[in-house]
Amino acid sequence: MIWQKQNRPGRIFKEPQMSFLIFACPKSGTTWLQQLLSHHPDAVCAESRAFGDYYDSKSLRTPHLTLEKYTSILSQYFAPGVDALKPEAATFYRTLLFNWLDTLAVTTKAAVNKRVYGEKFTPYQATADHALNILREYHPDLKFVNLTRDGRDVIVSGTVQWLNLRLRQAPPDEHEAFEKPLREHTIPPADFNMFLDYWLDAVRAGLKARRFFRHYLHLSYENFIEAPLHQTTKLLEFLGLDADSRTVDSCVQATAFNKLSGGRQRGDEDTHSFFRKGVVGDWKNWLSPEQQRVFEDRAGDLLKALGY
After folding, report:
1. pTM of the prediction?
2. What domain range includes position 257?
3. Complete DSSP assignment for the chain
4. Which of 158, 166, 225, 254 could link 195 by a cystine bridge, Cβ 3.0 to 4.6 Å?
5. 7-16, 72-81, 130-139, range with greatest mean pLDDT
């Protein structure tokens, strides 16, 4: 039976089923926290990237398509003869989108026998502000975790990942074009600019979220590396999850860098691994003086606001 309420007409569930969100720029440690939280006996952290008007069929890995974009595409042909279901019926399609997300959450919780569902969310390019607004509409009381990382390290980590994705798809005679910057620790200009834009967009939205959500927690990648037990305790308590010392230690140990990287210690670099190095400040070994100057000009205010 569909649940009805004045401010949520047509919503299937009495309450939104996604209770928390880890919001960050890509390459800020969200995969680490996603796995850490999913090791908790009561929680699962997934990723649907539900929100954002974004579609890219030629992504380097898999097509990038949000649930929101699919809903928009669906509206163009779903039921053209029914006035209440035409593309301009925004309320219906927004409700449908929220119900899909809630159904995804409920189905996932049942599959893993856990009571708390949340997601990590790294917004696609130029969609962070929009995603923030629709997240607030979906769940005003969402527990919003804003995870930040020094943007200069984000650029390095993101560039290395993209170089590796292109390397795997390139014919053998083009491998050197991608191996060379990996070997020489250099950042191609196009990648530098792309990941800087990614970081600026996501970080500005994440800081703005403090005004949108009363349940708001700001964490940093750097603090998690420095004090994983303390930061994990803070995170679990914020999410309303058991945070006794045994549970915290179990989550931290299960997602230690040596476990995620296949046996390497932090600082032991593998430029072809998703978990490349796991250290803070490696940008000093990669960014050119000119790139450091450009970053300071475009993002120095945010670095200061974040305490870097």
Report:
1. 0.92
2. 20-150+196-269
3. -----TTSTT-SSSS-S--EEEE--TTSSHHHHHHHHHTSTTEEEE-----SS-EETT-SSS-EE-HHHHHHHHHTTS-TT-GGGSTT-HHHHHHHHHHHHHHHHHHHHHHHT-SEEEEEE-PPTT-HHHHHHHHHHH-TT-EEEEEE--HHHHHHHHHHHHHHHHHHHS-GGGHHHHHHHHHHT---HHHHHHHHHHHHHHHHHHHHGGGT-SSEEEEEHHHHHH-HHHHHHHHHHHTT----HHHHHHHHHHT-HHHHTTSPPTT---TTSSS----S-GGGGTS-HHHHHHHHHHHHHHHHHHT-
4. 158
5. 130-139
